[in-house]
Structure formats: C-alpha cells, structure tokens
Task: inverse folding
C-alpha cells in the first residue's frame, strides 16, 4: 500500500472516478466484490480525471466550480465513502464530514437518539457523547425538540443538528459541502465562528461553496474544478478571479 507523506494531511494523485449515466456512479466497497468491469462502457463519463494535489495540516482549502464538475465527489472520496477508479487518496488522520445533512440520521428516531447514533457512527465514544450531548443540543438550538422525531424537523433544524454533531468531533480534517447555505443568517454566523475556532486549533478545512465571501473568509488556497479536471490550484483570490473570468459572478 502506498503511504502518505508525513507532512501532508491529504494526498491525491492521478485521481479518477467514472460514472454511468442513468444510475449513481462511483465505486463502493461492495463493487470490489461484484465484478465491476473497468472497461469503458456506453453512457459512462469521467466525473473526475487526472486530479492531483496535496494538503498540509492546518490549510483551509476552498473547492470551486459549477454544479456537476466533481466538487462533492471529491469530498466523498476524501471522506472515504466512495472509492476511485484510478489513482488514490490518502488521508493522514480522521475526517469530520458535513457533506449530506441526512447522513447518519433516522427519521423515526428522536433528536436525542439521533445525536447518539450519528456521533457514534462518526466514531465518538459513548462516554464522550454523553459529555458533549448538552453542548450539541444547545449549539443546534433544539432544547425544546430533544424528544421530537427527526422526520418532523425543518430542513434548517436538520442542518443545525448535523453541524452541531460534526463540529464536536475532534478529527483533524473538516469537510463542509455547501450545507450552510440552508440555515438562517444568525445560525450561519454561529457556524462561521465555530469554523474559525476549529481553524485556530490547527484543523484542516475542505470547503465547497458558491459563496465568494465565505470562501475568502475561511480559505487561503483554492482548487478550481471544471469538467472533472483540476484547472487551477492557487491562492483563493487567484482561483476566484479565474472562475469569475471563465463563467461570471454567481456561476453555478
């Protein structure tokens, strides 16, 4: 097995992921035992191809590009929930993924039960969950909904709960994929302050967003993906300028 360089938190080399149109693509662990053919088939396309970069501990990386260019796929690969068809991803340490707000939550379980479940799935020990439970609920502002089934929460409440759980994890790498766009302004500011705290602790941030202000606030470096390829790896201001020149302000 190829080893990650000691000075890198994340190392990506010649990364490629092939999807099939009309069905969800990317390899899972199950596919490894299902005889998935590596030959190109009709209707397949490369969601990512020939992507290489390395991230040092403590860096804050903004990933930009229009919708459908491979940004979320890249975060899922770093999180380890998807496997590449080509190349490799190596991560030095655990990740705290805030990628899909419904991930790890069960509709019929209460908020209380879901906190225990989601935190446990992320690897938080039972005693640590108990110690941090009140902080998670207070951050999510769900004190009056602790025994409410998750399925009855609004989309904003679900985002608050997901962020509250993930932000309490002590993993060195935080993955955030556009989910903060759903919350109200006051809660977004609370999340921003929490991200600032995590960055001040030396955490590594991978941040996907279409919000230029947020990218400039948190990130010092940017990765610009277009048509599944890494077009530019540079300081965030340079990446945003190139993106705007290519597609204009507000490109999605």
Result:
């Amino acid at each position: 097995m190829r080893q990650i360089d000691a000075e890198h938190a994340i190392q990506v080399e010649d990364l490629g992921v092939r999807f099939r149109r009309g069905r969800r693509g990317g390899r899972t662990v199950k596919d490894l035992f299902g005889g998935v053919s590596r030959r190109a088939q009709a209707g397949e396309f490369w969601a990512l191809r020939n992507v290489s970069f390395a991230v040092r501990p403590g860096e804050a990386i903004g990933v930009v590009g229009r919708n459908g260019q491979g940004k979320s796929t890249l975060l899922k690969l770093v999180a380890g929930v998807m496997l590449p068809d080509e190349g490799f991803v190596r991560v030095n340490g655990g990740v705290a993924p805030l990628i899909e707000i419904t991930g790890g939550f069960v509709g019929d379980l209460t908020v209380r039960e879901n906190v225990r479940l989601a935190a446990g799935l992320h690897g938080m020990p039972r005693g640590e969950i108990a110690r941090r439970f009140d902080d998670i609920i207070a951050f999510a502002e769900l004190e009056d909904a602790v025994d409410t089934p998750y399925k009855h929460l609004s989309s904003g409440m679900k985002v608050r709960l997901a962020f509250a759980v993930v932000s309490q994890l002590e993993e060195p790498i935080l993955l955030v994929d556009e989910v903060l766009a759903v919350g109200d302004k006051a809660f977004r500011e609370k999340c921003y302050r929490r991200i600032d705290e995590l960055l001040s602790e030396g955490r590594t941030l991978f941040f996907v967003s279409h919000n230029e202000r947020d990218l400039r606030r948190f990130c010092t470096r940017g990765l610009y993906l277009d048509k599944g390829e890494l077009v530019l790896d540079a300081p965030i201001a340079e990446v945003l300028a190139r993106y705007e020149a290519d597609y204009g302000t507000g490109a999605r």
Notes: The chain is about 35% helix and 25% strand.
